[in-house]
Specification:
Layout lengths: L12 H5 L1 H5 L3 H6 L3 H11 L6 E7 L7 E6 L2 E4 L2 E4 H12 L3 E5 L4 H8 L11 H9 L12
Antiparallel strand pairs: 1-2, 1-5, 2-3, 3-4
Helix pairs in contact: 4-7
Length: 148
């Protein structure tokens, strides 16, 4: 899947206010906007033997992140699968038409959610973790590519 800006899938006011409506979006839309942080932490936790980090994107003049993804050795994993991180940065910058910057995030999901006003898994209409695991399983990680 080609790298795509998270903003393409920005939630509508109804999707922001009604968790059931937000839940019914496609997996890509759900994990691009509204549950990207859940997907990033599930990715990190799925591969404990890899140095996977969590990174946020924010506008250069803002404190809050608008998108979260997992990182490993120059690669980024988000709603569009594994892509080179520079490509993810460029497509979001170009879509938003303003500078974006990457922000390494703390290891603790609860601390991130509190600091950046994001939902913890129990605050969704249903548990998003199994959905995130199933979505992650669709994408071969970069360290396995080229193997038979």
């Amino acid at each position: 899947m080609a790298v795509t800006a998270a903003g393409v899938f920005r939630r509508t006011p109804l999707e922001r206010s009604d968790q059931r409506v937000a839940w019914r979006r496609t997996n890509q839309a759900f994990f691009a906007a509204g549950a990207c942080h859940i997907l990033a932490w599930v990715c990190r936790d799925t591969y404990p033997d890899r140095a996977i980090g969590t990174t946020g994107l924010r506008f250069a003049d803002d404190r809050q992140v608008f998108h979260v993804y997992a990182t490993w050795a120059g690669w980024a994993f988000d709603h569009a699968g594994w892509n080179p991180e520079p490509d993810l940065l460029a497509v979001n910058r170009d879509f938003e038409r303003r500078p974006v910057e990457r922000v390494p995030l703390a290891d603790d999901l609860a601390a991130f959610c509190a600091a950046h006003h994001h939902r913890m898994p129990h605050r969704y209409w249903r548990d998003p973790i199994p959905r995130a695991r199933a979505y992650l399983d669709r994408y071969a990680p970069p360290w396995t590519r080229g193997r038979s």
